[in-house]
Amino acid sequence: MARTGPIQNKIMLLVCLPLLIWIAAFELLPIAGMLVMSFQDDSGQGFSLGQYIRTFTSDIYLQAIWNSLKVALISSVVGIIIALVCGYAITRLSEGFRDRMLMVSNMITNFVGVPLAFAYMIMLGNNGAFTLLFQKLGLESLSKFDLYTENGLLLLYIYYQIPLAILLVYPIFHGIREEWKEASALLGASAWRFWRHIGIPMMLPSILGTFSILIANALGAYATAYALTGSNFNLLSIRIAALVSGDIFPNFQLGSALAVILAIIMLLAMFLNEWMTRYSRRRGL
What we know:
By secondary structure, the protein is mainly α. 78% of the residues lie in helices and 0% in strands. The protein has helices at residues 6-38, 50-57, 59-91, 95-109, 114-124, 129-136, 140-143, 150-173, 178-186, 191-219, 223-229, 236-246, 252-282. α2 crosses α13, α4 (95-109) packs antiparallel against α8 (150-173) and α10 runs antiparallel to α13.
């Protein structure tokens, strides 16, 4: 292997300099500032654990953490189950149709935030198109569905989790080799027994890794929830925004403490994903 000289090293460092400045300015400095403020008192002075103590002794902030975890877990579980079925169905399609389906999933993945909330208001809001249609058809249970509640928020979260999950679980099915299916069939095993004892256990690490990404995706969502429910539904991301910019008296220190807690939860999910990815690679998937 050819060795790089001092001049080449300096050129490489010079090329990487804009990237290093960008990382420092937009990643490291904001994170450092958030950490420092989270350990300050309300006046922004000294070192204190008061913001964290206040967070874990306040019902409203504990409820925000619980609601965020609940919405993230439910939307991730439902989303990944639907994505597994859809991902397997896509593998059975022709190559051309399969590519179109993946392209559509990729496009829908970007349809989030305020446009998504507005689209659902038009369809299922109090005077939405489908709400009025259900009233005309006499379907009272459907026409009385309240979009601006936890159930409505879950519906939106599940909607934008599914296409992302499809894109992530679809490649997993290609890790299941046809030789395994043929060998299993030759030994007399049914398709159900193959998936139960071989297919699903081999896919499980990758599925759990995808699941952790979906949880992080749901925990960090803000625009969709705020556009749909405003501050009526208590989520961690909405509480942070309210403390930083929405309240009459902002509290950057408490908002930073909540942001650190949210970041720790998301990092745990990402570390789980990394561990599962390495585990699946060792299994040959």
